[in-house]
Write a structure and sequence with these properties.
Strand content: under 5%
Radius of gyration: 16 Å
Largest sheet: none
Structural class: mainly alpha
Helix content: 55-70%
Distance between the termini: 35 Å
Length: 134
């Protein structure tokens, strides 16, 4: 990462969640932990230790809702597919269209690899159904 990228990133982070301090030791440690993950299996192990199964399913459903919203799927179909409330889906839609672009960034990175991920790890469930250790 060059100096200009670092400056842009810092400015962007400063605008993320006014109540959230992204620069404290614990937040930085958490971000560094995520960035240190190198494989799908490492991510599964870390996330399963970090969160409950229900939390993993909730976050997986939110990401799936963002994916479906980006493909113009109707709210009712998303509710049926994910079990999320219409309020949560509306919030995801707002963030998906928002200026920060976190959902758009990650969707652009995982969508081209989705088929590879599913076939490479055919014994694991798809992300939208939650992460499970095989």
């Amino acid at each position: 990462m060059n100096k200009n990228t670092s400056i842009k990133t810092v400015k962007l982070i400063q605008g993320i969640g006014s109540e959230m301090n992204w620069n404290d030791k614990k937040s930085n440690q958490f971000i560094e932990a995520i960035l240190a993950l190198e494989t799908t299996n490492e991510a599964k192990l870390f996330l399963r230790d970090l969160m409950t199964e229900n939390e993993i399913k909730e976050f997986a459903n939110r990401l799936e809702a963002a994916r479906l919203l980006s493909r113009d799927v109707q709210y009712n179909a998303i509710i049926e597919s994910t079990g999320l409330s219409s309020t949560t889906i509306a919030r995801i839609a707002k963030w998906l269209k928002g200026s920060l672009g976190g959902y758009r960034l990650i969707l652009s990175r995982i969508t081209p690899n989705q088929g590879k991920l599913d076939t490479e790890h055919s014994n694991s469930s798809k992300l939208r159904k939650g992460l499970f250790l095989s």
